[in-house]
Design a protein that fits this description.
The protein has a domain of about 100 residues: Chitinase A, domain 3, CATH 3.10.50.40. It contains one helix and eight strands, in the order E-E-E-E-H-E-E-E-E. Strands 1, 2, 3, 4, 5 and 6 form a six-stranded antiparallel beta sheet that branches. Strands 7-8 form a two-stranded antiparallel ribbon. The model has no long low-confidence stretch (mean pLDDT about 90). It holds the Pfam family FKBP_C. PPIases accelerate the folding of proteins during protein synthesis.
Length: about 180
Amino acid sequence: GKDIPGQASLVFDVALLDLHNPKDGIAIEDQQVPESCQRRSQTGDFVRYHYNGTLLDGTLFDSSYSRNRTYDTYVGKGYVIAGMDEGLLGVCTGEKRRIIIPPHLGYGEEGRGKIPGSAVLVFDIHVVDFHNPSDSVSITVNYKPSNCTVLSKKGDYLKYHYNASLLDGTLLDST
């Protein structure tokens, strides 16, 4: 061309910002998995979780903690980016996990908002709870008197004490 003479040697100074392969999948790093895990999330579950979203260099681009509100979504239904949809499968209530998402499973070459194009995304998540809308009610009997001849029935007036909590044990209410 006009600016570079023929047979010239060129020198480029390059700062590698991130690296990915379009064949890469997500990477999951378990940070804290509860000892007791009754059930792992699966496609169709409604999951409530907190997250911090950063770029590979640690730059924060979004956080549910800053809104003081969990992010709630159905898993495996395409309501979130493909990498997060996959990363939320198989979690336990109370689990903390890091999900590293390559660009083609995130916001691609275009990016979005504070996220530049071709960015690798890092999400540190904390699963608050999840359920499947088709789940039935689960009842656990902790105590039943040995002499239990009178049973309640529909229409009876009951007086009782209770503790209401989330699946992770967070107390919501108590009489």
